[in-house]
Amino acid sequence: MWKNPGAAVAIDPSQVVPGLYVWLNVRWDEHPFISNRLMVKHAKDVAVIQSLDARGRLFYFPAKSTAEPGAYVPTTEELAAQQAAQEAALKAELLAEIKRLEDAKRDKRLRQRDAAARADRAWEDAARKTREALQTLHRSPKAAGALLQDLSRDTAASIAQGKEVLLHLLGDKKEQGPQFHALNVLTLCMLMGKKAGLTERELSDLAMAALAHDVGKVKIPFQLFKTSKRKKHEEDHVRQHVMFSVQLAIESGAFSKDALAAIADHHEAADGSGWPRATRTMGRAAAILALANRYDNLCTPDATDQEPLMPAEALARMFRLESARFDPALLSSLIKLLGVYPPGTVVQLTDGSLALVVAPGPDSLRPRVLVYSPDMPKDEAPTVELHTEADLKIAEAIRPSTLPLDVLEWINPQQRLSYFFSVEPPA
Long-range CB contacts (< 8 A, 24+ apart) of 307-310? Predict the structure, then answer.
């Protein structure tokens, strides 16, 4: 007895297998079978059906079939379309990742430039005030002292309240004057003082001492500082600048007792080898000031017959040969602050490229460096934070005098290093 075959289900020709009862919904003269409806019995039947243009017009009847349809097999065109779609998706994903990385690199570069520009602007303002105060302190002590006091209080407030304080190597500063050394020492003192947990008031006193510790040099013949080969009476005269600095600070009426003590002891040493008192006992501010002063003097000595040390050499000397002179915790703090390769150091990286260290990093061996790129202006050259580059490290420090002239002119490491800080305001 004839039975209704039930509902037909659409299938793709690639799914035809023996045992399916199929319906070819095509004209009768478009296929070789006796009927449009047939039981697929042999592999030959399968091949014939799959050779027809029956896509979208092929069905099977589950109720009359003895097998289930096979797995769908995409056509070459479909596979190509799928592959093209996958490739397009991968390309879109890659382009999105490239854009993300480029945006992140640009944003980081903008943040770096913004922080460096803020440091440079702050230095220019501080340098103007410091130069004016130091040059007039012996003539107008009250006015100069008030100027230093305002600058110190503002500096201490920004350091104490700032979320993050960053050290920056500054570009070439053409003018000369006592403000260079004073501001370098101020910068190092402020960063070490913050690390040591000094209060805002203590930071302000330390800033005052850092700015004015050498102001008494105006009362010493200038030429005595330009040579290291001084007779005993000349050396004794040079050392009087400490007393003169204290006297001028007292006359200004702007310096606290702690600031005056720091100025008086900024050439003293923990092992008693310092001067003028050869004391082993110093306040914390004086110990910080003495350490910062020594480091900057090694890098940029007043005497023209003394070879300036590379920043890394200066730190190494202080650690290996002079550590008894300094508080161990403060010396360790300075090394961590500046890193093994301090700002101003010319280095060769493990990929063979040259770079100039422009700022410390969170890892003392991996600072931020400006990579030597002679095919572009220096202010457009890449700045790399080595702590984010797993495969790139510093191989060695390079003495600038060993570099070819064209390389030296591009890198332009300063004879007189200048550095200052930028402050991220509290969130």
Answer: 308/415, 310/344, 310/345, 310/346, 310/397, 310/399, 310/400
